[in-house]
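Tutorial handout. Part one gives the primary structure; part two gives the three-dimensional structure as tokens.
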Amino acid sequence: MATAMNEGLAALTYGAVARRMGISDRMVVYYFPTKTDLSTAVLGELSRQLQETVAVAVDEQPVTFERLLARTWPVLATPASDRVFGLFFQVVGLASDGSEPYRSTVRALIEGWADWLEPRIVAPAGCTRRGAALAALAQIDGLLLLRRTAGARAANQAVRAMTIGCSAR
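Part two.
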């Protein structure tokens, strides 16, 4: 994980991981026989750690999207999380052009996040909880992308508009 986080996804090679760990690259291959296995393991662990971080901010009972966003944004909008989402958006870019294993990995990550969110969110009238969970993911990912591209101030203004209904100006 440290190799991908510090040097980017392109640097996630057997040799780079082995050097960072002080072991032979054959040892890395033993545990991760393919590059797909290595990438999937790294992304899965990042997702798991992020879910643990977000879980601290989530209420026990299902909440509206606005409440979910108000509780999780302070946890998500940090320099440490920025690094994680930088890596996530690298993977999303590769997935969006159909590159494997990224396409399958991102699909599985999104399904995992939706599964995790579904019991934690209240569905608006006429929506399923699954639909509400997917909509929440889409909105939060959009806010995180806005934070990475337009900056924290713009993302924070958008969060404020979404949570209390003010204009984004």
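Part three, for discussion. The two ends are 38 Å apart (CA to CA). The chain has a mean pLDDT of 89.
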